[in-house]
Each structure stands twice: as C-alpha cells, then as structure tokens.
Structure of PKDCC kinase:
Amino acid sequence: QICLSLVKLLFYLAHSPLGSIVLLDFQPRQFVMVDGNLKVTDMDDASTEELSCKEDNDCTLDFPTKSFPLKCSVAGKCEGINEKKNLFNAYRYFFTYLLPHSAPPALRPLLSDILNATGDLRYGINETLRAFEKVLHLYKSGLYLQKRPLLLKDYISLKGFRTVEGEDYKCWPSYSHLGCLLSIHSAEEAAAICNSQLRCQSFIITQHRTWTGRPLASFQSSWTDLIPDTNAVVYIKRSASSGERL
C-alpha cells in the first residue's frame, strides 16, 4: 500500500501542471499516511528546476552507490532528471525494504522485476505505475493463484462461530503480533496456507478486510473454546476433529 501510494504521488509530481517536481530532501520522514494515501509533509524542498546542460556529459545523475548518464535535450535541460531522481530515491528508501517481503510467492517475481527495473532506472514513473497496478489487479482478483487440488474438502466449516482470541503461533507477514493473521483471496487459499503450516489445525474468516478488500483469516493451532459470532466462519481440519464432537 505504501509503495503503490508513493508511486501514484511521484506520477503526479512528474506530470504536475507546474512541470516535473523533484523532492530535494527525499527521506521517509518527509512522508505521512493520511486515509490510506501517502502525503508529503513539507514541500519547501520541492523544485521544478531541471539541471541545465550543454551536452550529455553534463547530465550525470549521481547517488552514493550508483550514477546514471542522462541525455541533454535540445532545450538545454537534462531529460527527465527530476522524475528519475524521485524514482531512484523511492527505490532505495522504500522499495528495497518493503517490496520483496510480504507478497504471496507467486507475485514475488513480478515485484522483483519492478525492484530491478527501478533500481537500474530502466523504468520511468509511467512504467512503474503500470507494473504496480498489474500486480495489484492480480492480487485483488486472485489470478495469481496457481491451480492446485481442492483442499477445502478436508475441512469442516462452522458458520456463526469463532474461537476465543488469544496468543497463538506466529507467522510472517502477520497482521497481528499475537498470532498468524493473513489476508486471503478465498477460503480455498486459506486451506492451502493452513496445510502448509505444521501447527495449523483451523482457521477463522471474519468480515474484517484489508485496504485491497481481501478478507483476513486467523490461523490457529487448535479449535477449542468456540464462541458465537454471526460474522465468522471456523474451518477445522477433519483430521483434527476426528474423534471429537462438534
């Protein structure tokens, strides 16, 4: 969410009515989330000035670890230098820390492509935004899910119940520090996740959703202590419930 919101912000800055705007003091502390959107807290260090040049050699974009040669336009300006400076700063301060770690395995190659393309400045902001929106579409639609045997048949579902909240086993990247709370596309995906975790015996799906509209599922090592909840469904492994009365 942070990375996509940042890319949308940089897209606006690159195409603003004032011209391409560069953030001269590009640091994470300069941004804040407001209603799910990333905002710049201080525009005093923003500029529409683009570096003047006489030849291509005047247009090297330097960073501590990399340098990028740019073109000198016929207007005597370094082409796209503001946009590229913003984008590489987004790569080194945000993308490298946030992108690779929390996506479903099937989407990680696409995010790695974005990471590599922005890190080499092969993508401009337009291509970067399109790439992010493609990943978001796959993520929200569930099209990234690989065809696999149907696993939900191995679970018993109990509508209108959930387990008592408490600390349980942890997983990554969980939305809760008390246990394993993940976003899912469907109960079928949740069953696949539960099957892949050694300690998982049940999972609960409620009406809580993430910013993309995906439901949240809580994965648990037991299914005892059920309490009524009209907005929840508990799924229990048949192997875990065998011999027990539901």
In short: The CA atoms of residues 200 and 221 lie 5 Å apart. Helices lie at 2-14, 81-98, 108-119, 125-141, 187-196, 238-241. The longest helix spans residues 81-98.
